[in-house]
Amino acid sequence: MKDKNIHRLLFENYANYKETSIKSKMISHNLLKSLIEKLPDNLFTVTELGKSVEQRSIFSIKVGSGKINILLWSQMHGNETTATMALFDIFNFLSADDSFNEFRKQIFSNLTLYFVPMLNPDGAEKHQRENAIGIDLNRDAISLTSPEAKVLKQLYEETQPDFGFNLHDQANKHTVGKSSNSAVISFLAPPFNYEREINPVREKTMQVISSITNALSEFIPGHIGKYNDGYEPRAFGDNFVKWGTSSVLIESGGWQDDAEKQFQRKLNFVAILTGLDSIATKSYEMHSIKEYQNIPENEKFFFDVLLKNLIYKKNDMSFKIDIGITLNEKLDITTNTFYYVSEIEEIGDLTGYAGYLEFDGNELFVEPGKASKNSYLFDNLLTDNQLLNIYNKGITNLKTDFIGPEFHYVKQPINYTTNPSFANELKIGKPANFGIRNAENKIHSVVVNGFVFNLQKRNGIVKNGIII
Ligand SMILES: [Zn+2]
Hints:
Layout: H1 6-12, H2 29-37, E1 45-51, E2 57-63, E3 68-74, H3 82-95, H4 101-110, E4 111-116, H5 121-126, H6 147-159, E5 163-169, E6 174-176, E7 185-188, H7 200-216, E8 224-226, H8 236-242, E9 246-252, H9 262-280, H10 289-293, E10 298-300, E11 302-314, E12 317-332, E13 337-348, E14 354-368, E15 370-375, H11 384-392, E16 395-399, E17 409-410, E18 415-417, E19 434-437, E20 443-448, E21 451-454, E22 465-466
Parallel strand pairs: 3-4, 3-5, 5-9, 7-8, 11-14, 15-16, 16-18
Antiparallel strand pairs: 1-2, 2-4, 6-10, 7-9, 11-12, 12-13, 14-19, 17-22, 19-20, 20-21
Helix pairs in contact: 1-9, 3-9, 7-9
Bound molecules: zinc ion.
């Protein structure tokens, strides 16, 4: 097995190691515990490091016996789960017995790995960034107010790692430079001061990142970004570099049609193992910091939904506009599934921007979605035909008299409102509900809670409506 092919072999053979019990990016602490319990104890040493604010256990998993210590931690931001999924794939890979054995031997004999999957289990349970009392753990490296940050710092003191892997998810709106490519994965060699100087510790981080991006660019050319390198004196990564640990930041971003981030999970698997291999074999030393510096910085030229070339009429005037829409992901804690709340983010000329979903209006007319005149019963299921009739009138919101307090969103593809004088607005910050008409004044498409349904082609998916 030649080293230069390792990343390709990892990529191609990933399915053999994918932890099949993790099907969704919502990983419960119970699932995490059960998977940790199953790890073979002849290879892995599991330690309970401490407990979160709400008394959930935080674990470290040690493997290998090499001289180089590496600390890898995921999900310090509770809603950033991609790397946690990948770490369990990596545990499966490390405990397998197959043609990668030589690779594993190299890792185990040169490196001692300390993994902390899901540093913020309380945030994970609520799918929120912060811990149970609202502290952002990545702003707590110095004051160590939270038990979770204390646990990480303590492990750091005990292991004095040479390298660190700080594993996060970034907003899916990032693009690679000014291109319209989503930054599916971004890297950073964090600075250790405001001047962003480069010392040998940071230089090594840059070299490891170069070895990883060099490998990944084979699979996702043009989709790798560099994360913003502003110095954050309260963050762990920045301080680790200051304290002498070459700390790699990995940020998983967005990818077309992959809300569950399974492709990014696979990329993390390849990236982390490739990085570990480059450290174990010291092959990162062949990479220059120039390679790192040449990675385009993250920019933000992406929307979840981009409506282009529409005409908006107001006060007897016509305006040609594009509309950029964000779909904010929310967790429904009763079913542990996600729903979406749309928001108009930008209106005007959005030339140069891209969207995961794009609709080219080609001079069609856009108007705020209408509210129904009649009242509907909220819990009455509408048939497809009823919905089509409603959409055909440009209606996106149904009036209703009462909605129980237990409802936060609508499972059917329509919005409801209890306000008798409700009207949608084309305005930044408002939900995206529109009727789109053709030159004959017939409804061509509707946008319901940011999702487009084309009545000509009868296609489009409205995942859920909202209650306004
Ligand atoms: Zn994060």
